[in-house]
Amino acid sequence: MKFYADVHRTKKNSERYRITYTTEGKAFRRVDRFSGIPAGPGDQVFVDTIPPQHTDGAIGLLGRGVEVYHLGRLTLLEKMRRELRLPKSARGDIKALMSIEERWFRRVTEDFLVLRRMILAYRSLSKTHQQLLNKYRALSEAEREVLKPAISSIE
């Protein structure tokens, strides 16, 4: 069975996500985690994006024998939504996902998800390190001593 899911924020600038999914495009259901999708072994889940917060849920789906696919280019979703004249909503996004060819989706593996989460953590720490170095250079010699332990711990 094929499941189509749209992952979207609950509110503007919120850190919480909601997942709306359907199988045939008529009955839509909402869950807070990927584990709430009733997919079993051999099922396929097509999703627009997998936020880092939901990496463990996607890995859980993979552990249950579900094939998870994510959209490689999100611009296709917007383009398809415009072509089909669908509203910018969860249901509109799901209907657009259903009309995109399967070749545009990439199959997700556990290694890919774990590696992506590690890359995101590295980028975040790298940005923080650079910000601390910039602040370090702007401070006087006496004030620099405060930042040295933070910089060395990030390194």
- The succession of helices and strands, N to C, reads EEEEHEHHEHH
The tally of strands reads: 6
- Using the alpha-carbon principal axes, give the shape: elongated
Low-confidence stretches: none
Please tell me the overall pLDDT: 89
> Which range best describes the helical content: under 10%, 10-25%, 25-40%, 40-55%, 55-70% or over 70%?
40-55%
Characterize the biggest β-sheet: 6 strands, mixed
Provide the structure class: alpha/beta
The amount of beta strand, in percent, is 15-25%
Radius of gyration: 20 Å
Tell me the distance between the termini: 47 Å
Please list the strands of the largest sheet in the order they lie side by side.
3-2-1-4-5-6
Would you give an account of this structure?
- The chain has five helices and six strands; from the N terminus they run ββββαβααβαα.
- It is of the alpha/beta class.
- It has two domains: 107 residues; 39 residues.
- It is elongated and about 65 Å long.
- 20% of the residues are buried.
- The model has no long low-confidence stretch (mean pLDDT 89).
Brief summary:
With 155 residues, the chain is an alpha/beta fold.
Summary tags:
155 residues; 2 domains; 6-stranded mixed beta sheet; 6 strands; 19% strand
List the helices and strands and how they pair.
Elements: E1 2-9, E2 17-22, E3 29-31, E4 44-47, H1 55-63, E5 67-71, H2 75-83, H3 90-99, E6 105-107, H4 110-138, H5 141-154
Parallel strand pairs: 1-4, 4-5
Antiparallel strand pairs: 1-2, 2-3, 5-6
Helix pairs in contact: 1-4, 2-3, 4-5
